[in-house]
Amino acid sequence: MTALEQLRHVMQPPSTGTHIDWDDITAAYGTQFPFDYRDFLSEYGTGEIEGMMAVFAPSTDPELPLRHTSRLPADVLDQPEVDEWNDPRHAELYDPADVMVWGETVEADVLGWITSSDEPNTWPVAVYTHGGEWRVYGCTMTEFLLKLLTGDFERNPTGLTRLFGRGSAEFTAS
Question: How far apart are CA 59 and CA 63, in angstroms?
Fold first, then answer.
């Protein structure tokens, strides 16, 4: 059973997802996106988990929401603390400029992938905890959400104590 199939058991999808023209998105972003993320957006769309964690979609329309899947902005990359990693080896392997943000939390945690590989389905999830550092998780976006809700991480990867290990959650489409 895939992580998305398991996720359905702990977080019911809304009645409709988001239709995305992935060919247009690939052309605009210069990269493909992981299949599990594409499948998640098809089923769930963009929205929030328990009003505490937002999941974004990519966009090619400058008039659409400010919050969409994107690289970290230049003004953020200029801040020295954005290059803090919990594991010194990650500081040598990864660059914050390679992070593609797909979500955020009400605690100001940033959720994204490290996109340094040409194979999107191998991109690890990276989480920047507010006032902290980047942590890298060798899992897909849907595996990350599932593990967060079921408490299947050694420690809470975000500042959201109310979501970690909750067991079930409500997704509200936006």
Answer: 9
